Please model this.
Amino acid sequence: MSSNLATKLREGTKKAHTMAENVGFVKCFLKGVVEKNSYRKLVANFYFVYSAMEEEMERHQQHPILSKIDFQQLNRKRSLEQDLQFYYGANWREQVDLSPSGKEYVQRIREISASEPELLIAHSYTRYLGDLSGGQILKGIAQRAMNLNDGQGTAFYEFKDIPDEKQFKATYRQAMNELPIDEVTADRIVDEANAAFGMNMKLFQELEGNLIKAIGQMLFNTLTRRRTRGNTELATAD
Model:
């Protein structure tokens, strides 16, 4: 039996994917506007989300369907821990917590794991394939915008156990397309993937206020410096 699930997911989430890319925080990110405090809060939320997702996938490692797409080299928890230590310091565990949208996201992952574990496929697809694709572009933007040295604060985007990302994505999609699931289950997974995009959008939207505030403060500081410099020049001229 062939489900063609990867194909259905790609086609069935196009609209949600476009909507996620047009959230203010993401649009600013893509333009190179990255504020470190907002970014590290996103990393903290991702830590809890990926931890939940990977714990639940491990819980179902003998599952007849989930076991076929449980690629350990995709796991991000350890790399996120590295990034959190970089951004928050050695005691990062005492400083990070989940935002309200992050809590909803994690709760949803735990909920479907207990009742409909095959829907975890939707969350794996939404996050991991995004990380292997557009995430590689975001890595370069983050490094330039925050003046990071290679590897500092961007371990999340490093897939050291995947030497050929393009080939791996093809393998991953083939495994999904060959999953032994019926049409009804495939449709439910597509619906859950759209819901996952929505949860990611909420995470980004939460950070927009912080980003706008930070940009406003940056502009204020710039104007203040210019005004001070101008007053100093006038005083010198007098």
About this structure: Confidence is low (pLDDT under 50) at residues 216-221. DSSP finds ten helices and no strands in the chain. The chain has one domain: 5-207. The longest helix spans residues 183-237.
